[in-house]
Amino acid sequence: MPVQDFLKALDSIPVSARPKDFTVVLTGGEPLLRPDIIQAGAQIRDRGFAWGMVSNGWFYDEQKHAALMEAGMRTLTISLDGLEASHDWMRSVKGSYSRVLRAIGIAAADPRLNFDVVSCVNKRNLKELPEMYSILSSLGVRQWRLFTIIPIGRAASDPDMHLSDSEFVSLMDFICAKREAKGKMNVTFSCEGYLGRYEEKVRDQRYFCHAGINIASVLIDGRICACPNIDRDRFSQGSIYEDDFYDVWQHRFQEFRKRDWARKGTCKDCPVWKDCLGNGMHNWHGQEEPALLQCHYHKTLSSKA
Fold first, then answer.
1. What CA–CA distances, in Å, run from 283 to 55, 204, 304?
2. 63, 79, 62: which is closest to 115 by C-alpha?
3. Does residue 129 carry a pLDDT above 50?
4. pTM
5. Which of 125, 143, 177, 237 could form a disulfide with 252 if both were Cys (CB 3.0 to 4.6 A apart)?
6. Taking 60 as the threshold, does the pLDDT of residue 305 lie above it?
7. Which residues, at least 6 apart from 235, have a Cβ–Cβ distance to it below 8 Å?
């Protein structure tokens, strides 16, 4: 997408309607593949918006870091998905691990940057988490965010991508232990779904799905969605090439803001519905009748293996 197309959508938001903590996040894919990423960031900054990026770290070096910071980048998330073999397997490119450690070290050393590392926990890297914790701590990382993956895309047919219920509980217990230890690095679980008995223990705030409530996205083809992880075919709200972005934000997104439609199947008579509201929107897939792919609350009911 030409950057001017996106900027036009951004310009549709009235100055009076922009909250002071509004942030534009450039993600992908890999945003550093764009040759104009620095110019794009600078134009977002020049409009008065804070901006940040999610990256795999492959192209991130000292020179790139300096240019991005000069262009106004204020937040950065870098993905680390295990020790060397596990990370390179997840990324499908050998050498990814050494590149991402370089990137993490550069970002963690800059106090101007609101920086965190995110990790997709799976069967291959679950037992590597303690060593990953030590490595990230030694690099000066202050925030580590863990999440699991839903069964879509290539993850749908790869059992190594998914934790069993007992493994999921082991992950919760790991996070609890690190938070109770109160080390220099804050470890949290992402906003995937309601976690029952772990809800007050693994996050800084209680579960809440932000999709369509205070998160919107513009996809590469111009579609207006919420969190980019949701079913974009089922839940798209319009297009910047056909609609006014701010008007869409004000008057659509009703499936996200009123979730009664999700009270069906396993959610129909759930005792924790008021806390969960049908799990995260990214867990609902299907064109005609979207179905819940997994329930985090039920995973927490499993005993640790």
1. 23, 22, 24
2. 79
3. yes
4. 0.95
5. 237
6. no
7. 212, 225, 226, 255, 256, 281, 284
Give the chain's radius of gyration (CA, Å).
Answer: 20
Distance CA 279, CA 298 (A): 11
How large is the average pLDDT for residues 146-164? 92
What span, in angstroms and rounded, lies between the C-alpha atoms of 234 and 241?
Answer: 19
Q: With H, G, I as helix, E, B as strand and everything else as coil, classify residue 58.
A: coil
Rounded Cα distance between 173 and 273, Å, is 24
Alpha-carbon distance values, 142 to 10, 96, 103, 187 (Å): 31, 22, 15, 9
Report helix, strand or coil for 301: coil
Q: Burial of 274 by CB count in 10 Å (0-12 exposed, 13-18 middle, 19+ buried)? A: exposed
Q: How far apart are the first and last CA of the chain?
A: 48
290 alpha-carbon distance from chain centroid: 21
Using CA atoms, how far residue 127 sits from 15, 82, 123, 142, 182, in Å, is: 48, 9, 8, 21, 21
Instruction: Give exposure, 230-251, as e/b (b: 16+ Cβ within 10 Å).
Output: bbbebbbbbbbeebebbebbee
Q: Give yes or no for a contact between 271 and 295, defined as CB atoms under 8 angstroms apart.
A: no
pLDDT at 250: 97
